[in-house]
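Cont'd.
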Amino acid sequence: GAVVSQHPSWVICKSGTSVKIECRSLDFQATTMFWYRQFPKQSLMLMATSNEGSKATYEQGVEKDKFLINHASLTLSTLTVTSAHPEDSSFYICSARAVFGRVSYEQYFGPGTRLTVT
Amino acid sequence: SQKIEQNSEALNIQEGKTATLTCNYTNYSPAYLQWYRQDPGRGPVFLLLIRENEKEKRKERLKVTFDTTLKQSLFHITASQPADSATYLCALSGTASKLTFGTGTRLQVTL
């Protein structure tokens, strides 16, 4: 149980275009999803917290107009990188907080999306 | 500012030995501490969670300790196997469940 999927697993796009990444919780409902970015040989950095039905909360230094987050349902959150530039190339990972009849603080992560901007 | 450090970037041990990974933190009073495993090009996989009022937790060959006085957690893998080779991340959170990750330790188990 507690499986999270991401689509696509990798994407190459041209500078200036927008890319949408989907994150789905497959066998549970997730009121809260998180988006992380990971650069090579570095740890995960939280970008934003996405709550179903409300606006996302962005971490300091993350441009909300550049990284658009939509959490339209209890099983789907999307991250859109707008006007992508080469410096946005990174590994983007989402996670979902599973709640099985009680408050739970374990997070289950998707497999990640490798974004390369040329 | 909050800081989470994990011991050495890489740890090499022989198969069958116990691997011990360290996570130290400063300027933080976490309610929860979690350990994750990450393989190259993959997302982290949840392993164990320990609460601030717990001293130790076990799951199969894994054991985690949490010392809030020392501000340290130790993660042990007993009878290590080559398949345990991966990067291990510790992560801290308060009650808001927002995770702050450590730098990670790359474990290599050799035959």
